[in-house]
Design a protein that fits this description.
Number of domains: 1
Strand content: 15-25%
CATH class: Alpha Beta
Shape: globular
Helix content: 25-40%
Number of strands: 6
Structural class: alpha/beta
Radius of gyration: 16 Å
CATH topology: Rossmann fold
CATH superfamily: P-loop containing nucleotide triphosphate hydrolases
């Protein structure tokens, strides 16, 4: 069995979109109805994807807005990003576009593994962002897209599996482009 690989993942998005709920559902398999604004927390979990074990460090960031100053550590020492918006908030999708632009500016021409996530599908009656809008944005950025519910555990594991697969693809491409002379 290959050695365990360490990977850092940043959860980013507007405030109150459910970043912490997604991480806690993934790590602890529980959902907490309460809401406490997050400053920053880091959670760890081991997962097996396609026979490779990964020790994930998931950084649960504070909610961002257009004026947020995001620490450079979120850009320099991260292997992949989960960009989360709420399907009940058009504003949260608008903020995701700004966050994506910041990541692109910081990473330059380097391809970065990112998954776009529309959270809170359990609140379908309050939907403000269509699935088509999320899919269209993900297609434009050429990244995976999922709609999920941290509350009902709909597709939560799949979010992290998709990101790990994207990280694996990036590493495979990087290895093929590496020449030793």
């Amino acid at each position: 069995m290959p050695p365990t690989r360490q990977r850092r993942i940043a959860m980013m998005g507007y405030r109150s979109v459910g970043k912490t709920s997604l991480v806690l559902r993934f790590v602890t398999c529980k959902f907490d109805e309460g809401y406490d604004p997050t400053i920053e927390n880091t959670y760890t979990k081991s997962v097996n994807v396609a026979g490779q074990v990964y020790q994930l460090q998931v950084i649960d960031t504070a909610g961002q807005d257009e004026y947020s100053v995001t620490p450079n550590d979120y850009y320099m020492n991260v292997d992949g990003y989960i960009l989360v918006y709420s399907i009940t908030s058009q504003r949260s999708l608008d903020i995701i576009k700004l966050i994506y632009d910041k990541i692109s500016d910081m990473k330059g021409k380097i391809w970065v593994p990112i998954v776009l996530v529309g959270n809170k599908t359990d609140l379908e009656e309050d939907r403000a962002v269509t699935m088509e809008d999320g899919k269209k944005l993900a297609d434009e950025w050429n990244i995976p897209f999922l709609e999920v519910s941290a509350k009902t555990d709909e597709s939560v594991e799949e979010v992290f599996a998709q990101l790990i697969k994207a990280i694996q693809r990036r590493e495979t491409v990087k290895d093929k482009n590496c020449l030793v002379s």
